[in-house]
């Protein structure tokens, strides 16, 4: 489980940290609902789904796309089953330890949440990639399975994108 969560999280961060553009990101009140097997979430109507590998779902703000079409503001969501004998607390401990052990990440906040009646844990981080500084979230939502949501944006864009990222996080629902 520890390796699965870390691989998914790192893959998500690589996907969102591919380039740098200046954009005037705005939050939106209109949303689209994404429904997957076992869960759903909402995202801003002006965002797009991004093709990814396997069961990983990514949505991003096209206004943040670089010349290669890679979004610097995005959220990646994946559902993972807990290994036998592993708890939600074990999964959150694994993520915290991985973040603390990686010199590229600065853990700047951590909080317990309840999202649509489900236990959740949010880690807020800053990190450097290719000379650019990003800020974002690692969020785990618990049921019999765990949903891992990883998202963020360039630090200058984060204050404007925080509401969009929180909209996605707060709308995650097991179905």
Rounded mean pLDDT is 83
String of helices and strands: HEEEEEHEEEEHE
The figure for the number of domains is 1
- C-alpha termini separation: 22 Å
Q: Would you state the CATH class? A: Alpha Beta
Q: Give a count of the beta strands, DSSP E runs of length 2 or more.
A: 10
Q: Structural class of the helix and strand makeup?
A: alpha+beta
What's the overall geometry? globular
User: What is the strand content?
Assistant: 35-45%
Subunit arrangement of the protein: single chain
CATH topology group: Protein Transport Mog1p, Chain A
Write out the strand line-up for the largest beta sheet, numbering strands in chain order. 3-4-5-9-8-7-6
Low-confidence stretches: 1-26
The fourth-level CATH homologous superfamily is: Mog1/PsbP, alpha/beta/alpha sandwich
How would you characterize the overall build of this protein?
By secondary structure, the chain is α+β, with helices and mostly antiparallel strands. It has one domain (about 1-20, about 30-175): Protein Transport Mog1p, Chain A (3-Layer(aba) Sandwich). Helix content is about 25%, strand content about 40%. It has helices at about 1-15, 90-100, 160-170; strands spanning about 30-35, 40-45, 50, 55-60, 75-80, 105-115, 120-130, 130-140, 145-155, 175. The longest helix is centred in the N-terminal third of the chain and has 15 residues, at about 1-15.
């Amino acid at each position: 489980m520890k390796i699965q969560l870390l691989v998914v999280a790192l893959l998500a961060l690589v996907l969102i940290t591919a380039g740098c553009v200046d954009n005037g990101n705005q939050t939106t009140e209109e949303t689209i609902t994404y429904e997957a097997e076992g869960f759903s979430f909402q995202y801003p109507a002006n965002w797009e789904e991004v093709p990814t590998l396997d069961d990983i779902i990514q949505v991003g703000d096209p206004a943040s796309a670089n010349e290669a079409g890679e979004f610097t503001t995005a959220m990646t969501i994946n559902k993972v089953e807990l290994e036998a004998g592993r708890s939600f607390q074990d999964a959150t401990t694994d993520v915290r330890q991985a973040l603390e052990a990686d010199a590229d990440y600065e853990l700047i906040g951590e909080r317990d949440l309840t999202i649509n009646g489900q236990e959740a844990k949010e880690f807020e981080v800053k990190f450097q990639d290719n000379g650019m500084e990003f800020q974002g979230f690692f969020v785990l939502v618990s049921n019999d399975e765990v949903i891992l949501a990883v998202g963020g944006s360039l630090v200058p864009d984060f204050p404007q994108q925080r509401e969009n990222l929180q909209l996605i996080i707060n709308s995650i629902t097991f179905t």
